[in-house]
Amino acid sequence: MAATQQYVYPDRDEIRIEAVLAALADPVRLDMVRQLADAGSEISCSGFDVAVTKSTLTHHLRTLREAGIIMGRQQGTARYNSLRRNDLDELFPGLLQGVLHARR
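The structure assignment produced for this chain is given below.
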Protein backbone atom coordinates (compact mmCIF):
# COMPACT_ATOMS: atom_id res chain seq x y z
CA MET A 1 0.00 0.00 0.00
CA ALA A 2 1.13 3.52 -0.78
CA ALA A 3 0.92 6.14 1.94
CA THR A 4 0.94 9.91 2.15
CA GLN A 5 1.51 10.96 5.75
CA GLN A 6 -1.16 9.03 7.68
CA TYR A 7 -3.26 8.38 4.57
CA VAL A 8 -3.34 4.80 3.38
CA TYR A 9 -4.85 3.84 0.03
CA PRO A 10 -4.40 0.89 -2.31
CA ASP A 11 -1.99 0.95 -5.22
CA ARG A 12 -3.77 0.91 -8.57
CA ASP A 13 -3.38 -2.85 -9.03
CA GLU A 14 -4.92 -3.45 -5.59
CA ILE A 15 -8.18 -1.56 -6.29
CA ARG A 16 -11.12 -3.98 -6.41
CA ILE A 17 -14.44 -3.34 -8.13
CA GLU A 18 -16.38 -4.69 -5.13
CA ALA A 19 -14.83 -2.09 -2.81
CA VAL A 20 -15.39 0.72 -5.32
CA LEU A 21 -19.05 -0.16 -5.84
CA ALA A 22 -19.67 -0.58 -2.11
CA ALA A 23 -18.13 2.83 -1.38
CA LEU A 24 -20.11 4.54 -4.16
CA ALA A 25 -23.38 2.95 -2.99
CA ASP A 26 -23.62 5.43 -0.11
CA PRO A 27 -25.38 8.66 -1.19
CA VAL A 28 -23.11 10.93 0.86
CA ARG A 29 -19.94 9.37 -0.55
CA LEU A 30 -21.36 9.48 -4.07
CA ASP A 31 -22.10 13.18 -3.60
CA MET A 32 -18.55 13.75 -2.38
CA VAL A 33 -17.15 12.00 -5.46
CA ARG A 34 -19.40 14.14 -7.67
CA GLN A 35 -18.12 17.26 -5.92
CA LEU A 36 -14.52 16.20 -6.57
CA ALA A 37 -15.29 15.45 -10.22
CA ASP A 38 -17.07 18.78 -10.68
CA ALA A 39 -14.22 20.68 -9.01
CA GLY A 40 -11.63 19.06 -11.24
CA SER A 41 -9.07 19.61 -8.51
CA GLU A 42 -8.43 18.88 -4.86
CA ILE A 43 -10.95 19.69 -2.14
CA SER A 44 -9.96 20.19 1.46
CA CYS A 45 -11.79 18.12 4.05
CA SER A 46 -13.67 21.20 5.19
CA GLY A 47 -14.54 22.11 1.59
CA PHE A 48 -17.09 19.35 1.03
CA ASP A 49 -20.72 20.48 1.05
CA VAL A 50 -22.30 17.63 2.99
CA ALA A 51 -24.69 17.64 5.93
CA VAL A 52 -22.74 15.31 8.22
CA THR A 53 -20.66 15.73 11.35
CA LYS A 54 -16.89 16.05 11.16
CA SER A 55 -16.40 12.50 12.46
CA THR A 56 -18.86 11.11 9.89
CA LEU A 57 -17.10 13.05 7.13
CA THR A 58 -13.80 11.55 8.26
CA HIS A 59 -15.36 8.07 8.07
CA HIS A 60 -16.63 8.70 4.53
CA LEU A 61 -13.24 10.03 3.40
CA ARG A 62 -11.46 7.00 4.87
CA THR A 63 -13.90 4.64 3.13
CA LEU A 64 -13.33 6.37 -0.22
CA ARG A 65 -9.53 6.28 0.26
CA GLU A 66 -9.47 2.62 1.29
CA ALA A 67 -11.60 1.70 -1.74
CA GLY A 68 -9.09 3.47 -4.00
CA ILE A 69 -11.49 6.18 -5.20
CA ILE A 70 -9.65 9.16 -3.73
CA MET A 71 -6.18 10.07 -2.52
CA GLY A 72 -5.44 12.38 0.38
CA ARG A 73 -2.50 14.55 1.26
CA GLN A 74 -1.60 16.77 4.17
CA GLN A 75 -0.37 20.33 3.65
CA GLY A 76 0.26 22.13 6.90
CA THR A 77 -2.91 21.79 8.93
CA ALA A 78 -5.14 21.25 5.89
CA ARG A 79 -5.98 17.90 4.35
CA TYR A 80 -6.67 17.73 0.62
CA ASN A 81 -8.48 15.04 -1.32
CA SER A 82 -8.38 14.24 -5.02
CA LEU A 83 -10.27 11.82 -7.23
CA ARG A 84 -8.22 8.93 -8.64
CA ARG A 85 -10.00 9.32 -11.97
CA ASN A 86 -7.11 8.09 -14.15
CA ASP A 87 -6.65 4.94 -12.08
CA LEU A 88 -10.39 4.19 -12.02
CA ASP A 89 -10.81 4.87 -15.74
CA GLU A 90 -7.87 2.60 -16.54
CA LEU A 91 -9.15 -0.25 -14.37
CA PHE A 92 -12.89 0.09 -14.96
CA PRO A 93 -13.48 1.93 -18.27
CA GLY A 94 -16.72 3.91 -18.25
CA LEU A 95 -17.65 3.08 -14.65
CA LEU A 96 -16.91 6.44 -13.08
CA GLN A 97 -18.35 8.35 -16.04
CA GLY A 98 -21.58 6.32 -15.81
CA VAL A 99 -21.85 6.74 -12.05
CA LEU A 100 -21.22 10.48 -12.23
CA HIS A 101 -23.87 10.98 -14.89
CA ALA A 102 -26.51 8.68 -13.38
CA ARG A 103 -29.80 10.29 -12.51
CA ARG A 104 -29.82 11.71 -9.00
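Interim note for the steering committee: The beta strands are 2-4, 7-9, 43-44, 70-75, 78-83. The longest helix spans residues 54-67.
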